[in-house]
């Protein structure tokens, strides 16, 4: 690849063409949107064990256009803290952003200790969890991000526990900024990334990232699926500043959550009480509205 083409690819594609990711992968779309938001920035990625590090491909080639540090499953925030410290020791006049890119396994479960530690220290990092709600890289096992009733390879009868509230956990750490992102809302996605770049300290993002293989969905419907999640209130778009100031970014439009469930065969045949789901979704949205109404904005 010549230098001119290389610069074009870096500007336009954090995730380079020709990668081996699955069709309809929400993580891949998230990487594309992230690269566009960071096109004029100097940054590197730290990625633990997950689909995101398999994406890089075999040495000496890579599907990424920026430097990537491969971290152990439990330790991407600790690795990133070290990278940020080295950057500070070698300033060249340009800010270098250090970004953790991790799945839900390395965020909600295996990596939560180092995530909590970095958040408590208010490390100057951006942490992005692409949440596909399973251990997608190791066979589709359940994680604490897996929603109630979803079938996985380790919950063939459907998960009996509810999904962990990771944004609530980050808000409890009083980090400067935490927000949800949807690949069906690219303008909101970009605006939030650009906002985070202007904030010092620990910043956390949660991306709703469909996995057609694990969710038993059609690859061509991934964007529609996450759009349904926002429109129905299943995945609200909101921000939290300093752990206390909430801002709601999109109101549900009345779409029934049933449409979200019926497009995913991981819920097929499961005894889902949709009336209870509707009540729970409404209660969560009411709570977010109240919190947003109490904010300083």
Structure description:
The chain starts with a helix and ends with a helix. It is globular. The protein has one domain (3-293): Thiamin diphosphate (ThDP)-binding fold, Pyr/PP domains (Rossmann fold, 3-Layer(aba) Sandwich), CATH 3.40.50.970. It has helices at 3-12, 26-37, 51-54, 76-89, 105-109, 112-120, 166-172, 186-197, 212-215, 222-232, 257-262, 274-293; strands at residues 42-47, 68-70, 96-103, 126-131, 177-182, 203-208, 238-241, 245-248. It is an alpha/beta fold and 297 residues long.
Q: What is the CATH level 1 assignment?
A: Alpha Beta
Instruction: Write down the domain tally.
Output: 1
- Which geometry do the CA atoms define? globular
Q: What is the N-to-C succession of helices and strands?
A: HHEHEHEHHEHEHEHHEEHH
What order do the strands of the largest sheet run in, or round the barrel if closed? 2-1-3-4-6-5-7-8
CATH architecture classification = 3-Layer(aba) Sandwich
Low-confidence stretches: 1-5
The residue-averaged pLDDT reads 93
Oligomer: single chain
Question: How do you describe this structure in short?
Answer:
The chain has 297 residues and is an alpha/beta fold.
Characteristics:
Rossmann fold, 297 residues, 8 strands, eight-stranded mixed beta sheet, disordered N terminus, alpha/beta
Task: Chart the SSEs and their pairings.
Elements: H1 3-12, H2 26-37, E1 42-47, H3 51-54, E2 68-70, H4 76-89, E3 96-103, H5 105-109, H6 112-120, E4 126-131, H7 166-172, E5 177-182, H8 186-197, E6 203-208, H9 212-215, H10 222-232, E7 238-241, E8 245-248, H11 257-262, H12 274-293
Parallel strand pairs: 1-2, 1-3, 3-4, 4-6, 5-6
Antiparallel strand pairs: 5-7, 7-8
């Amino acid at each position: 690849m010549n230098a001119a083409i290389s610069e074009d690819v870096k500007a336009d594609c954090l995730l380079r063409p020709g990668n081996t990711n699955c069709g309809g992968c929400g993580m891949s779309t998230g990487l594309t949107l992230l690269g566009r938001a960071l096109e004029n920035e100097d940054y590197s990625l730290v990625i633990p064990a997950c689909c995101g590090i398999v994406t890089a491909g075999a040495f000496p080639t890579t599907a990424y256009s920026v430097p990537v540090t491969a971290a152990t499953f439990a330790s991407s925030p600790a690795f990133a803290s070290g990278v940020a410290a080295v950057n500070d020791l070698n300033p060249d006049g340009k800010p270098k952003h250090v970004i953790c890119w991790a799945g839900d396994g390395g965020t909600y479960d295996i990596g939560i200790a180092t995530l909590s530690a970095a958040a408590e220290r208010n490390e100057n990092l951006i942490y992005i969890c692409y949440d596909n709600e399973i251990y997608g890289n190791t066979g589709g096992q359940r994680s604490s991000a897996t929603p109630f009733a979803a079938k996985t390879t380790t919950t063939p009868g459907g998960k009996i526990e509810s999904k962990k509230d990771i944004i609530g956990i980050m808000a409890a750490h009083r980090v400067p900024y935490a927000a949800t992102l949807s690949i069906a809302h690219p303008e909101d996605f970009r605006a939030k990334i650009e906002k985070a770049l202007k904030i010092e300290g620990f910043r956390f993002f949660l991306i709703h990232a469909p996995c057609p293989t694990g969710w038993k969905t059609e690859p061509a419907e991934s964007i529609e699926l996450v759009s349904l999640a926002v429109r129905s209130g299943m995945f609200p778009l909101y921000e939290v500043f300093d752990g206390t100031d909430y801002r709601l970014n999109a109101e549900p439009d009345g779409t029934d959550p049933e449409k979200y469930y019926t497009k995913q065969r991981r819920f097929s045949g499961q005894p889902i009480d949709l009336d209870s789901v509707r009540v729970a979704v409404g209660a969560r949205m009411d709570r977010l509205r109240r919190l947003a109404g109490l904010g300083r904005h």
